[in-house]
Specification:
The chain is mainly alpha-helical. The protein has one domain (3-248). It has ten helices and no strands. The chain has helices spanning 3-23, 25-45, 57-87, 89-94, 100-124, 135-162, 166-182, 195-203, 205-218, 225-248. α3 packs parallel to α6, α6 (135-162) runs parallel beside α10 and α9 (205-218) packs across α10 (225-248). The longest helix is centred in the N-terminal third of the chain and has 31 residues, at 57-87. The two termini are 22 Å apart.
């Protein structure tokens, strides 16, 4: 098959998902409201945790809130996949004469774009919270959100392919995402944590997304930026390789 038709198929899947996201304004507003709730309520209540560190707690948790926003936004692509399976549309998609990688890649790119757009909305209100990252910081954060969104979308697609009922997905997704979030260093500094907890943080891919976002936005790195980018890229590739054979069986 020629290269151009593959790109056209990927573009068509991406465009369909992004258009679907943009039409659901209630979901966009709800996701923004959830992020602000975490920042304002949790950030204000736990501000004393950062006393003496020279960093405001709201600024500290903003990268984690961005990662959580990207996670929930990305998982909507998996929800859409399961809904399409129940409606029969997924069978039509996978029967198209294109490699399964195109289908997985197109949906992953759509989920990554949605995560980036949703994160951009949160960044728009960052100055109201007293955080004014430079242009390089904003562009770096958007790039990281895209990479994080890609990895989490493919993870969601793996979960979606492994489940048969749509109502089971929410429980399983929260069982996966929330532990990843709480073990990512999004809510508390990593250095004072117990050794066993630090080991769990180091094994958690989302830790590297949160740390890289915190680094480009407020200049506080725990892991080297190159390591974080490598981990996110590897997770994206491995999840994609896992997802392709799962959707070949549809």
């Amino acid at each position: 098959m020629a290269v151009m038709p593959l790109w056209e198929a990927t573009w068509a899947i991406w465009q369909r998902d992004v258009r679907s996201y943009w039409r659901r304004r209630v979901r966009i507003v709800a996701a923004l409201a959830r992020a602000l709730l975490w920042l304002v309520v949790l950030g204000s209540g736990l501000r004393p945790l950062m006393a003496g560190t020279g960093m405001d707690y709201v600024h500290y948790i903003l990268p984690g809130v961005l990662a959580l926003t990207a996670a929930y936004s990305s998982l909507q692509a998996a929800v859409a996949t399961m809904a399409e399976r129940e409606s029969g549309f997924l069978r039509v998609v996978v029967s198209a004469p294109v490699p399964r990688m195109v289908i997985v890649g197109g949906r992953a790119l759509g989920g990554a774009t949605e995560a980036t757009l949703q994160g951009a909305l949160v960044l728009l209100v960052a100055p109201v919270l007293g955080l004014r990252p430079g242009r390089a910081g904003v562009l770096g954060a958007l790039g990281l959100l895209f990479l994080t969104g890609f990895a989490l979308t493919v993870l969601g697609m793996v979960l979606a392919a492994s489940l048969k009922r749509l109502e089971d997905f929410g429980v399983i997704a929260n069982f996966v995402i929330l532990p990843m979030y709480f073990l990512s260093g999004a809510l508390y500094p990593i250095p004072p944590l117990p050794v066993w907890f630090k080991a769990l943080v180091a094994l958690n891919p989302l830790s590297y997304a949160v740390d890289a976002l915190r680094g480009v936005l407020v200049g506080a790195y725990h892991f080297p930026l190159g390591l974080s980018l490598t981990v996110l890229a590897l997770v994206s590739a491995l999840m994609a390789l896992w997802a392709v054979p799962l959707y070949s069986r549809e």
